[in-house]
Design a protein that fits this description.
heterodimer, A: alpha+beta, five-stranded antiparallel sheet, two-stranded antiparallel ribbon, 37% helix, extended, B: mainly alpha, three-stranded mixed sheet, 5% strand
């Protein structure tokens, strides 16, 4: 016959085991493609190739690799190719912010003492930076205006046998 | 003494809330990615806005190397690597800085710079890819944002940044400027945390390899610029980065552990040689 104490232990044990079950974390492939390897090595055999957005069950991290479950098989992907977030669409450009940025620069000297939230720089450091550092928004716009097409990247990859 | 039936009922009553709580926690975990993604979209906008200002400062210091052919080549190498990154939401941009100083810079949001001096020290495409990959890992792992010591929330690693600089009040503008100052100070004077540099080196090995580039390119490049250590061209690099013997040792150890045989990967030496002719 079960005693009150043994049932209390049973209840406690079941409750603890329910909370101790490791969460199965879903990871998502972020890269265009991710090779799933049979071992954490580039020399290992390839089990398959997962495309961007594929859900993988993350098991554990092993060095620069993530051990995952993929279609019921355990395998490894380079951990730089996956993350716990679904892949997002590309963020758009923030042209409207140019004015804000320049206002921010103009305001810096007069308003910095009112901002308690930012950390890290002493007043001497800030004075040194304000004196030494210049900004080049024209150069920034040229950097942002320069693009290559996806086809050009594909041809470059093919040309370099990558 | 109570009967077992009564005790079993008590046990069930006690267990049900625990089971319900576990189910609720599991359901929350399942919902988390989608909710986080929503938060992340705003955070990324702030990350890019912040990165643009840091990039403008770097350009202000060195100037843009206005050579379209070289910019195209560096961008194509960078975009080849970006296909294998874990930040598809970012539009990575690549440019060459007009200075003989040897260095590379990464700004939040995906602005990557390599100096003309660094390219002049390189001998093949895998070396350039290794340097760009190292900088991209700084972006992907948000190392500059980490340096700001903003407490991240569980929802997103950069939610703290958005909270700090995302407002339109005077205080938010000032906080934004101060955060940019701190980031610039990290890049030019104090350097990243040593563990972030190590993480970027290990990540560069992975990113180079999955992209088809020989990860030993970064080793060769480090060994070459180590010879120039102490000169004017490596002044910023020397004070912001760990010693090269430690870095090359870490790269070799990572390559050995990951089963990387250099001969199975590309250096594209000839294509690099052709591209740098444009700099002459």
């Amino acid at each position: 016959m079960l005693t009150i104490r043994s049932i209390a232990f049973l209840v406690l044990g079941l409750a603890l085991s329910a909370s101790a079950v490791p969460a199965q974390t879903t990871y998502y492939v972020q890269s265009a493609k991710a090779k799933v390897m049979s071992a954490p090595s580039f020399k290992a055999s390839m089990l398959g190739e997962a495309s961007r957005g594929t859900k993988l069950t993350f098991l554990k991290k092993e060095g620069t690799w993530a051990k995952i479950s993929y279609y019921g098989k355990e395998g490894f992907v380079a951990s730089i190719l996956v993350s716990p977030y679904p892949p997002l669409a590309q963020a758009g450009m923030i042209k409207a912010e140019d004015t804000d940025l320049q206002q921010g620069v103009r305001r810096r000297a007069s308003t910095y003492t009112s901002a308690a939230a930012a950390r890290g720089l002493a007043q001497d450091d800030r004075q040194r930076l304000s004196r030494d550092e210049k900004v080049d928004y024209g150069g920034l716009e040229k950097v942002e205006a320069f693009t290559v097409s996806p086809d050009e990247v594909t041809r470059f990859l093919e040309g370099g046998k990558l | 003494m109570r009967r077992p039936g009564t005790l079993a009922t008590v046990a069930l009553v006690l267990l049900l809330p625990a089971a319900a709580a576990a189910a609720e926690a599991q359901a929350w975990r399942q919902r988390l990615p989608a909710e986080s993604a929503e938060i992340l979209s705003d955070d990324i906008t702030e990350e890019v806005r912040f990165g643009r200002e840091v990039a403008a400062r770097i350009l202000g210091r060195y100037g843009l190397y206005a050579n379209t052919a070289m910019t195209r080549y560096v961008t194509l190498v960078g975009q080849s690597l970006a296909r294998n990154g874990n930040r598809p939401e970012l539009t990575f941009r690549f440019a060459v800085l007009n200075t003989s100083e040897i260095n590379g810079y990464a700004c939040p949001g995906g602005y990557i710079f390599v100096t003309r001096g660094a390219i002049e020290k390189m001998q093949d495409e895998s070396e350039l890819a290794g340097v760009i990959a190292h900088e991209m890992i700084h972006v992907n792992e948000r190392h500059v944002v980490n340096e700001l010591n903003i407490k991240a929330t569980e929802a997103s690693p950069v939610a703290g940044l958005a909270r700090l600089i995302g407002g339109s009040t005077d205080a938010a503008r000032a906080a934004f400027s101060q955060a940019v100052d701190k980031a610039v100070d990290t890049l030019f004077r104090t350097g990243y945390k040593r563990e972030d540099e190590s993480s970027a080196d290990r990540g560069a090995v992975s990113l180079s390899a999955v992209s088809g580039y020989d990860p030993a390119g970064l080793v060769r490049y480090f060994e070459r610029i180590n010879a120039a250590k102490g000169s004017k061209t490596t002044e910023v690099l020397d004070k912001t980065h760990p010693a090269y013997d430690a870095r090359t040792a870490l790269l070799k150890e990572t390559m050995a552990r990951d089963g990387i045989d250099s001969s199975a990967f590309r250096t594209n030496r000839e294509r690099f040689a052709e591209a740098v002719k444009q700099m002459k």
